[in-house]
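in:
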């Protein structure tokens, strides 16, 4: 996985915002996942069809964190979501 990748959300994955968090349901496994507000923002950007680099750009504009930290965290979350089959590389 690299920063130029775009991710897609498979049709069996549903997400809802609850307050400042996002709850994700994998309809095939029946498993729920939760994202904190930062993870929810990343999820939304991925769902909007942004590349991982574009997600990092948007996160850098709204958070005072180094680019290295943002890239590391975005890639780590994306990989975790991919392993759980909640997103796929487009």
């Amino acid at each position: 996985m690299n920063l130029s990748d775009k991710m897609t959300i498979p049709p069996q994955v549903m997400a809802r915002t609850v307050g400042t968090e996002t709850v994700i349901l994998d309809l095939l496994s029946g498993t729920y996942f939760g994202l904190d507000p930062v993870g929810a923002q990343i999820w939304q950007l991925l769902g909007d069809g942004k590349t991982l680099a574009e997600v990092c750009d948007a996160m850098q504009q709204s958070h005072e964190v180094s680019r290295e930290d943002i890239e590391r965290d975005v890639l780590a979350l994306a990989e975790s979501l991919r392993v759980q089959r909640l997103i796929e590389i487009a």
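note: The chain has one domain: 7-89.
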